[in-house]
Design brief:
Layout lengths: L1 E4 L3 E2 L10 E2 L4 E7 L2 E5 L8 E3 L4 E4 L6 E4 L6 E8 L9 E2 L9
Length: about 100
C-alpha cells in the first residue's frame, strides 16, 4: 500500500518530528524548500548528506534507521511518499539511537 503524507515543515535547527526512525517500506523524499540533512544510522562516521530544493532520495525502509535535520537558516519543506505502509498503520517507526552520531 502506498501512502502520501502532507509536506512537513521543519524550522531551522529542528529535528525530524520522530527523531531517529525507520519506515515499514521504501520512502521517496523530494526537497521543495531549504536544505534537509540526513544521517544514516549505519554510518560509523556520521557523515551528513545534504539535499537541496529539487533533489531527493529513496530511503530503502525495512529497518533502515536514520535522522533528518534542518541545520540551515531556511525552513525545510519536503514531499514524501511511503510504500508498504500497513493498512491503518503508520509510515513512521520509532527507533533507538544507534550511537554513531553525537546527537
Amino acid at each position: 500500500m502506498a501512502s502520501a503524507a502532507p509536506p512537513p515543515f521543519l524550522r531551522p535547527g529542528s529535528l525530524r518530528r520522530l527523531s531517529r526512525h525507520s519506515h515499514p517500506g521504501p520512502a521517496f523524499i523530494v526537497v521543495v524548500r531549504g536544505t534537509l540533512t540526513l544521517y544514516d544510522g549505519n554510518d560509523p562516521t556520521c557523515t551528513p548528506h545534504r539535499y537541496r530544493p529539487g533533489t531527493g532520495f529513496l530511503d530503502p525502509g525495512f529497518g533502515h534507521v536514520h535522522i533528518a535535520r534542518n541545520e540551515g537558516k531556511t525552513p525545510v519543506t519536503v514531499v514524501q511518499t511511503y510504500l508498504d505502509v500497513p493498512s491503518g498503520g503508520s509510515p513512521w517507526i520509532d527507533e533507538p539511537r544507534p550511537g554513531n552520531c553525537p546527537f
